[in-house]
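Regression test case RT-17, inverse folding.

Input:
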């Protein structure tokens, strides 16, 4: 049975003594003010209007009132804290909220909602996100957005640690002409090579030189400087190796350096002593001839 709260007759408010300090009718349109609002005030309210004239006309309207606590700022935790290896490990993200009612959870990555697929799944309340297995594409900034009918709050951004790579290994140089995997360098020129690949944690690099059908490591690190005048062979094969000591994966790329002589040195063989001889032809016009040999 509905409880009577208050009424108005000819602009005179008739409150119920039990509720007169909590419910107030606000003119001019008989709005109902509930103050202070409590969770116990949630429910269905009915307003009934009676109009007396030649008979009595009446109408009523039911209104549902819900009461919510504002959402407190959520906190995201992930496991394992040490991170996970691509295609091997899994990551669990949990969104925790200390206060709020009727909470709705949404996971975001780089500011956009997380796509749920075969490797991404949610708990029944959506407050836990499982990624199994992790891949390089899962690297990013994650947050949890929690809302209810009266407020919303977003957690701080976290970036779970995901180990991957190496990918896209390549060698580039600051000088020389590169065609495919062949670098052409002028004799006497020093050239610096950079080896790079996408990886986390960063790779360890080693440079290998091949000559006379043997190979040997000549340097460690992402850079190699080659002084062309110190290269014994005009054509030498090299290899850069990248290794990720967490994923246990490695990659390598091969390239060749060709040492060429400077352009004017090739013309030295054409230098010599030339003799110009003139002799008349039948018309009397001198002609110039070059001795053979």
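Golden output:
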């Amino acid at each position: 049975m509905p409880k009577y709260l208050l009424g108005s007759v000819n602009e005179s408010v008739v409150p119920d003594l039990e509720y007169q300090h909590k419910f107030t009718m606000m003119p001019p349109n008989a709005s109902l003010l509930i103050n202070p609002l409590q969770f116990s005030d949630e429910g269905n309210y009915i307003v009934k209007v009676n109009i007396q004239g030649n008979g009595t006309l009446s109408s009523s309207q039911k209104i549902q009132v819900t009461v919510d606590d504002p959402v407190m700022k959520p906190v995201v935790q992930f496991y394992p804290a040490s991170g996970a290896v691509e295609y091997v490990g899994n990551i669990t993200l949990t969104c925790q909220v200390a206060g709020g009612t009727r909470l709705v959870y949404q996971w975001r990555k780089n500011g956009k909602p997380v796509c749920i697929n075969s490797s991404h799944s949610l708990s029944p309340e959506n407050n836990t996100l499982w990624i199994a297995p992790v891949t390089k594409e899962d690297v990013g900034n994650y947050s949890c957005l929690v809302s209810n009918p009266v407020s919303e709050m977003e957690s701080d951004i976290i970036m779970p640690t995901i180990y991957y790579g190496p990918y896209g290994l390549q060698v580039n140089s600051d000088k020389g002409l590169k065609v495919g995997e062949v670098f052409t360098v002028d004799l006497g020129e020093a050239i610096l090579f950079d080896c790079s690949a996408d990886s986390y944690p960063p790779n360890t690099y080693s440079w290998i030189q091949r000559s006379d059908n043997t190979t040997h490591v000549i340097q460690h690190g992402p850079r190699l400087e080659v002084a062309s005048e110190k290269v014994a062979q005009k054509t030498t094969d090299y290899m850069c190796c990248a290794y990720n000591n967490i994923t246990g994966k490695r990659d390598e790329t091969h390239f060749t350096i060709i040492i060429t002589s400077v352009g004017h040195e090739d013309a030295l063989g054409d230098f010599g002593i030339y003799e110009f001889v003139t002799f008349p032809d039948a018309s009397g016009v001198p002609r110039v001839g070059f001795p053979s040999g």
